[in-house]
């Protein structure tokens, strides 16, 4: 058995959500009061997560990303990274974080095998950052990025969700970040995942806006190949820059045919696609590798050819109405 689906896609990448809790309340991800949280007892233990990866690694799983919610709010995340990095076949462990707690935790994360970090940062202006995250402090995130640069956890990826009339005035500042440091800025299209249709229709901006802006500013963008973990990002480099610019445009442009991602939610649901509702509860099978393998096979067979984010009305039967914090971003 391997991790191939009905469309010939061989999956080698798993995004593991370790919590649905978060210390921020980003406006595109959740409401002011947060989301309805899972019961603590429903959340997979670190041993269960490790056991799941141990079954997938011999089937071709190579790369892991720890996410959430905010993964750094869950105690002992460094121990999980330590256990995962010892599994034979696992070559790369990365983390997606809002960066608020990153600086002081970097040493122990890196000592335990963390190889790469993606930091979500949608504004470089303190007040706008606060408005977008509702409670965050830009200073903490910048300190985290700085520590990561100093300690050599590079290249660092910065995820920017582009929103019309909110942070699209900062395209130039984000492009400039890539000039002098090994920082990969990845612009992400705002996805209609959380059922907040009105905000999405008002704020969604296709990423062509960034390319047009870069050209208008006189930046020459050259296509870039071979950035680790860039499966779904189209990557460019400003002539002479140390870092690169990525475009993740799930809404305006399908990258489903090259998708090799699988997901495990914090409460033990195996999800072949971020968008579609299909998921399989694997928790009960964790003690039985053969049953688990057959559930994984079943999950892979449920993977659709492509999502319908760009054509489906949100809130309909098939479209997804949970936030990224609930699914695992
Ligand atoms: N809390 C961590 C963080 O913010 O990096 C990890 C989880 S968060 C759900 C993962 C990523 O999903 C972040 O980069 C965030 O910007 C992105 N995200 C959340 N909701 C989104 C949406 N509706 N459209 C596009 N990206 C979204
Ligand atoms: Fe929290 Fe990340 Fe969602 Fe922001 S995007 S609210 S940091 S889970």
The proportion of residues forming helix, as a percent range, comes to 25-40%
What is the CATH architecture descriptor? Alpha-Beta Barrel
Bound molecules: S-adenosylmethionine, iron/sulfur cluster
The H/E string reads EHEHEHEHHEHEHHEEEEEEHH
Overall form: globular
SSE layout and pairing:
Elements: E1 13-17, H1 46-56, E2 63-67, H2 77-85, E3 92-97, H3 102-111, E4 116-120, H4 126-133, H5 138-151, E5 156-162, H6 171-180, E6 183-189, H7 197-203, H8 208-216, E7 221-223, E8 234-238, E9 245-248, E10 261-264, E11 269-271, E12 280-281, H9 289-301, H10 324-327
Parallel strand pairs: 1-2, 1-10, 2-3, 3-4, 4-5, 5-6, 6-9
Antiparallel strand pairs: 7-8, 8-9, 10-11, 11-12
Helix pairs in contact: 1-2, 2-3, 3-5
Bound molecules: S-adenosylmethionine and iron/sulfur cluster.
Q: How would you describe this protein?
A:
The chain has 329 residues and is α/β, with parallel strands linked by helices. It has one domain: TIM Barrel (Alpha-Beta Barrel), CATH 3.20.20.70. The chain is 29% helix and 17% strand. The protein is built from ten helices and twelve strands. The protein has helices at 46-56, 77-85, 102-111, 126-133, 138-151, 171-180, 197-203, 208-216, 289-301, 324-327, and strands at residues 13-17, 63-67, 92-97, 116-120, 156-162, 183-189, 221-223, 234-238, 245-248, 261-264, 269-271, 280-281. Strands 7-8-9-6-5-4-3-2-1-10-11-12 form a twelve-stranded mixed sheet, with helices on one face. β10 (261-264) and β11 (269-271) form a beta hairpin. α1 (46-56) runs parallel beside α2 (77-85), α2 runs parallel beside α3 (102-111) and α3 packs parallel to α5 (138-151). The radius of gyration is 19 Å and the shape is globular. The chain binds S-adenosylmethionine and iron/sulfur cluster. The site of S-adenosylmethionine has 20 residues, from β3, β5 and α10. S-adenosylmethionine is lined by residues 22, 28-29, 67-68, 70, 96-98, 120, 159, 161, 188, 190-191, 193-194, 324-325, 329.
């Amino acid at each position: 058995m391997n991790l191939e689906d009905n469309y010939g896609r061989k999956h080698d990448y798993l995004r593991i959500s370790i919590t649905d809790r978060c210390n921020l309340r980003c406006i595109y991800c959740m409401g002011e009061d947060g989301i309805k949280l899972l019961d603590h007892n429903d959340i997979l233990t670190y041993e269960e997560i490790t056991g799941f990866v141990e079954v997938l690694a011999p089937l071709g799983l190579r790369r892991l990303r720890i996410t959430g919610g905010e993964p750094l709010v869950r105690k002992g995340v460094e121990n999980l990274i330590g256990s995962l990095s010892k599994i034979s076949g696992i070559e790369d462990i990365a983390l997606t974080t809002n960066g608020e707690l990153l600086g002081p935790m970097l040493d122990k994360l890196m000592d335990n095998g963390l190889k790469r970090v993606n930091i979500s940062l949608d504004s470089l202006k303190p007040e706008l950052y606060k408005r977008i995250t509702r409670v965050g402090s830009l200073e903490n995130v910048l300190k985290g990025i700085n520590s990561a640069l100093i300690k050599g956890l590079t290249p660092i990826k910065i995820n920017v969700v582009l929103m019309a009339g909110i942070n699209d005035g900062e395209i130039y500042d984000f492009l400039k970040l890539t000039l002098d440091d090994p920082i990969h800025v990845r612009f992400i299209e705002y996805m209609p995942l959380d059922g907040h249709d009105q905000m999405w229709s008002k704020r969604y901006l296709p990423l062509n806006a960034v390319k047009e802006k870069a050209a208008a500013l006189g930046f020459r963008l050259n296509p870039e190949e071979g950035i680790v973990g860039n499966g779904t990002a189209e990557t460019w480099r400003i002539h002479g820059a140390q870092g690169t610019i990525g475009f993740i445009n799930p809404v305006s442009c399908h990258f489903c045919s090259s998708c090799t991602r699988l997901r495990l939610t914090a409460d033990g649901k195996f999800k072949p696609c971020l968008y579609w509702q299909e998921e399989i509860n694997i928790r009960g099978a964790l003690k039985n590798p053969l049953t688990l393998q057959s559930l994984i096979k079943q999950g892979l067979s449920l993977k659709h050819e492509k999502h319908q984010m760009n054509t489906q009305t949100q809130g309909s039967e098939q479209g997804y109405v949970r936030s990224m914090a609930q699914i695992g971003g």
